[in-house]
Structures are given as structure tokens and as C-alpha cells.
Amino acid sequence: MIVAGLMPQAEFVHWWFATGFLMLGLVLLAEAVVGPEVWRKRAWRPYLWPSLCFAMGILMWPVMTFFTNSAIHMVAHGSWAEVLMLCGAAELGVARGKLHSQYWRLTSSLALVVSGTAFLVHEQNAWLFSRAAFLHHTLGWTALICAVFPFVLAFRPRSLVAATGFATFFVLLAVLLYCDRDVAPVFGHFSQFAGVPHR
Amino acid sequence: MRRALVAAVLVALAVPGAAFAHASLKHETPSFGEELKVSPRRVVLQFDQTVDALPRGIQVLTPSGKNLAGKPYVVTAQRQLVAPVPKLPKGAYTIRWQALSNDGHIVSGVYTFGVGVPAPPVTAAVGAQGPTGTEDVVRWLYFVALALLVGGLGFRLLILRGPLPERAERRFFWVTGIGVVAILQVGIVAFLLRGEDMLQLPFRLFIYGDLSPLANGTRYGEAFIAMTLGFALTAAALYLAWLLERRWLLWLAFALGLVFASGLSLSGHSAADPPHSWLSEVADYAHLTAAMLWVGGLVSMIVVVWHGAPELRRTAFLRFSRMATVLVAVLLAAGTYLSILRLPHVHDLWTTGYGQVLLVKLSLVALALLWGAAHHFLAAPRLAAGEGGTLFSRLGRSMLGESAVAMAVLLVAAVLVDSKPPPQPAPRAPVAAHDPSNSLLQGARTRIVTRENHPSNSLLQGH
To answer: In sequence order, what are the residues at sequence separation of 6 or more whose Cβ sits closer than 8 angstroms to the Cβ of residue A8?
Structure first.
């Protein structure tokens, strides 16, 4: 009960994770812009985004356990925690040289498919039913479509388009999570059936 | 212009709004698990968004399942859903609620309160059926996963100690990795099953059901939160131990596993059902830990050593044989103490369901102990004398059999944990002889004690 009193608003938590995803996207974008050779001139750089991804996966577990106001949210947050950890772990293993097959990079693709599916399964209404529905659909389909980028990277690691697309996905994800505001002018109430705006 | 834009963005980010989630219950009257002195006049549920009322939006149920609440209505300005109630007599009540969220989803929940009596736990809400056969299987899988993780780590650090051949090391990380991932997955499934029983909703509504009374209002829920977070950290430590090849990270994972496994003991019968004490909790934890180390060690011996590092078979077997003696002693001592504590009479062993399951478990444990004793007293001396060859292959098959019996013990243990021990006899109060008023008092006390022992009042039904 003490914990319940200290719980931040769900929206703030979304924004914290948006910030994390923004950093992730910018790091990936920097790597795509300068190219892998330049990027790896510092030994720690290849570990940067996988570590961030892994750490965000660990941080997602408290979100899953403390926000239990609906079962589907709990399951969705749990699946995101797991795929973030899995994706970060596989990329760290490849960066460290413990995993040798480049096909381990397919875990990033799997992570996006699972994440996108979780968003879409979680939303039962049509796109324009409400701001929430619009965001859920956009996030879900963006993740599913962008899963093609890490898929291509597993087979063509030097593909500039795939690397840029993968990085842009995280930036887009961050923007969409930042839009998680009830009175946001762009994503306001589309439908009167969604109830009156109350903030 | 640019400054104004930046300022506008910062202001926009700083103003909190609702999450793009369904309506959440923020405050309720009566509150979760509250013991009221007098009957409430109405039930008020306040949400973080406006909601629409549904026909049976709030039900106030008596233990017999009769709904006493009037027609619910919405107070839009306050974001409240309200239902009037008549004057409630003394007793325990269950509130089941449903509301149409702004995003079109029906959100649901359940909680309990009492008028003049303590509120029952939410797991004993009206309509909840208690643990099912599926939950027994899920709990068994949880025990197996815990054994793989804790027992595997213990085996690696206490028995094998030094560096391992690459194949054996890989097998060790597979065993413990499967264990920790399974703990997280099975733990979530177990929590959802308990929530489903509590809410008693069809699946399409259950997925939007409010599980927070279970998560925050019961020992089971608190243990779920602590154990999920703890084992997520354990998974991270185990992974980093593999990645960085740092032994201290394995010790960290082992310590975390041991610490957070205590969540089972701190939320189970030994912590919740009378007569519980710190000693019963310690005994339960010792029993659990010894079992995990024994069963997990046995599995690791077969998977990691027997098939991954044949050159270590002799050393590992002799060391494990010594450690198993200590583990079995702890297991038996703690198990005997807990059995005496939970079964007030010897005849409870064959007259109650709990006792009968315990008898099955004791039979299987006896079989496993005989098997282990044969290894300790017959096989170990021959190995110590330098014998090998066919003995190794026979021992491998024999340990596989012992592991199968150990798994069966864990299955029966899972059923036992989900069963309710027989009630404890009421303590006798000193009563002055031949005083009729004191006799009445004695009768009242007995009734109160009986109510406290009723299964519906246990903190965690079947746990």
C-alpha cells in the first residue's frame, strides 16, 4: 500500500521509456550514419545500444508488477520486458563474441513482432474510436512493419536502409509514447462515443 | 519563435494527463479489506477517467451470493460510480464491479470488506472456487523451475566449484537459464489463474479485470511482485555471468535465488495459517531450500556432469553424496516439524484430505530416500575405491529414476500447498465452574475462534 502511494502516473512512466527509446534510436542512427567501422573505433560503443535495451527490459518488470489494474496490461508489459531483455542479451552476446551466428540478430525482429502484436491484441476498438485506440494501432502496426528492418540486417548487416529504418523506428516509438497525453491536440478525442474530454 | 516552441514543448510534457489505458480505480468507499464499524450508506468507486454505468455495475454480495446493492449511477464531475446500499447487517461482503471505460472497454474488479468483522481475503471473495487442478500443475512447474535454477547454481558453486569443460559449462547455463525463464513465465500464469478465480469473469472481460486487490492486498500478491522482480534480477545476473565469465555474478544469482525463493514460505501455510510463527516460516524455508538443492542438484548431476563432463563423474558424485546427506537431514527435520504443526491429531493423516495427500508425499519421499541411501551406501564406496566402467552407466540410469521420483514428490507437494490444512482445535479459556454467564461467554469465544479458522478467512485460500 505504501508502494501504491509512491506510484508515478502511468503517463510519466511512458514518457521515461520514451526517453530511453529516443536515446536508443539516436545511438542506432549515429551508428548508421557513420558506419560500423567508425562506430567500432571505440571498444565500448558496440555495447551501447544492446546494454540500454537490456537495462530497459529489466526496468520494464516493475512496470509489469506494479501496474496490475488490468490483466492484459500486465501481460503486455511482461512480454515487452522479456523481448527487450532477449533482444539486448542477444546483441550483447554478438558484440562480446560469445554468440557467433549473425542470425541471433533475428531476435530484434522477433522482439518487434511480439511487441507489435501485444499492442494490437490489447486494442479491441477501431483506429478512430479514441486517442488511445489510434495510438495503440499506430504503435502496433509500426512495430510489425519495422520488424522487417532487423530481419534484413540479419542477412545484410551493411544495409544502410535497414540500419536507418531500424533506428528511425525507435525515434518514432518515442514520439508516439510522448503523444500519450489526454489533451494532446493532435491525438484528441476522435469519437463522441469515447466519452467527453475530461481534462 | 524557437524559444516559444521549446517552452511550449516543455510545458506540454510537464502537464500530466491520463495514460492511454483503460479507466483505473483510484479510490473506493468502503476501501479494500476495510473493517467498518457501521454499515455504509452507499458504495463509491472513483476512477481516473469518466466511466459509464452498466446495469449490474456494482454488486454488494452477502456470503450466500445475494446482491444488496441498488441501481448504480454515475457522478460525471467526480468520475464516480455510485450504488446505494441498505443498512447492512454485521458480516463479510464482496463487491463486484464493472464499468464502461472511455476507450470502450469494460473494466472489472472485485474486493471485500466487513461490517463489524474483519474482511475476508479477496481470494476468498464470493464466487471464488479456490485452487484448481490446473493451478496444481502450474505450481509443480514452478517448483521444478525453482529446483533447476537454485539447485543448478548450488551444484555448480558448491559441488563442481572450479572451471568446467566448455560443453559442461554450456549445459549448466542451459539448465539454469531454462529454470529462471520458466520461473518468470510460470509465475505470471499462476498469478493470472488466481486472478481469474478471484474475478470469476469470462475471458473477454477477465483480460480487462483489475488484479490490483490481489497484487497489493494479499501476501500472495506481494510475494508475486517481490519474486518476479527478484527473479528478473537473477536472470540478469545469470546472463551477465555467462557473458562476462565472472564467477561472482554466479554467486550473486545464487544469493538472489535463495533470498527470493523465500517468498513462497512467507506467503504460504506456514506464514498465514494458525499456528504460524517465525519458526514455522524458517522451517518451511529450510524444507523448500533443501528440496530445491537436492532435486536441482540431481538433475544437474545427470545433465551437466554425466553427459557433459564424464571425467568429473566420480568427484561430483562423491561430493554430492555428502551434501545430500545434510540436505536430507534438513528436509526430514523441517518436514516433520511442519507436519506436526499442521496436523493437530494423528488421525488427521487418514481422515482429512490434507493428511491423505501428505501420506502420499511421505511414501514417495521414503522411496526417494531409499534410492538415495542405496547410492550413498552402496555406490559411493565402490566409486571411492576407484571402480568405474559399467558402474557409471548403471548409476546414470539409476539417478534418472531417482530424479523421476523426486519430480513426483514435487507434484504432490504442489497439491499439498494448494490444499487447506485441517483447522486447529480452539484454545480452552479458563472458565469459573458453575457460572452460567461464563458458560455463555465460553460458547461465544468458541464461535469466534471457529470463524477465524474458517477457510474463507484464511489469508490465502489454499496457499
So the answer is: none
The total of structural domains in chain B comes to: 2
Do B77 and B215 lie in one domain? The reply is no
Cα of A161 to nearest chain B Cα, Å:
30
Q: Where are the domains of chain A?
A: 7-182
Neighbouring residues of B187: CB distance < 8 A, sequence distance ≥ 6:
B142, B224, B227, B228, B231
pLDDT band at B3 (very low <50, low <70, confident <90, very high): low
Residues B190 and B322 in one domain: yes
- What is the least distance, in Å, from the CA of A193 to any CA of chain B? 8
Does residue B181 sit in the same domain as residue B105? no
Indicate the residue among B380, B402, B417 that finishes a domain.
B417
Which run of H or of E encompasses B108? strand B106-115
Scan for cell 509465475, then name that residue: B187
Task: Establish if B21 touches chain A: CB-CB under 8 angstroms.
Answer: yes
Three-state SS at A157: coil
What residues are paired with A32 via a beta bridge? none
Nearest by CB: B13 against A62, A82, A178: A178
CB atoms near residue B327 (< 10 Å): 22
Query: Which pLDDT value is given to residue A197?
Result: 52
Rounded Cα distance, B334 and B331, in Å: 6
The predicted-structure confidence for A22-74, as pLDDT tens digits, reads as follows 999 999 999 999 998 999 999 999 999 999 999 999 999 999 998 887 888 89
Residue among A70, A100, A175 with most chain B CBs within 10 A, to mutate: A70
This prediction has a pTM of: 0.81
Give CA–CA dist A2/A7, Å, rounded. Answer: 9
CATH class of the domain defined by A7-182: mainly alpha
Q: At which of B75, B100, B122 does a domain end?
A: B122
As a whole number of Å, the end-to-end CA separation of chain B is 63
* Residue B323 forms part of a structural domain: yes
Q: What residue numbers bound the domain in which B194 lies?
A: 133-417
Residue B430: inside a domain: no
B103 touches chain A (CB under 8 A): yes
Asked, for residue B337, whether it belongs to a domain, the answer is yes
Q: Assess if residue B459 is contained within a domain.
A: no
User: Could you give the CA distance from residue A65 to residue B427 in angstroms, rounded to a whole number?
Assistant: 40
Q: Which of B11, B19, B99, B93 is nearest to B51 (CA)?
A: B99
pLDDT at B185 over 90: yes
Average pLDDT over residues B387-407: 88
- Report the alpha-carbon distance of residue B329 to residue B381 in Å, rounded: 20
Residue B113 shares a structural domain with residue B248: no
Contacts of A178 (CB under 8 A, 6+ apart): A15, A18, B13
Q: Tell me which of B270 and B16 has the higher pLDDT.
A: B270
Verify that B187 and B79 share a domain, yes or no: no
Best CA proximity match to B104, nearest among A37, A89, A190: A190
Q: What ipTM was reported for this prediction?
A: 0.89
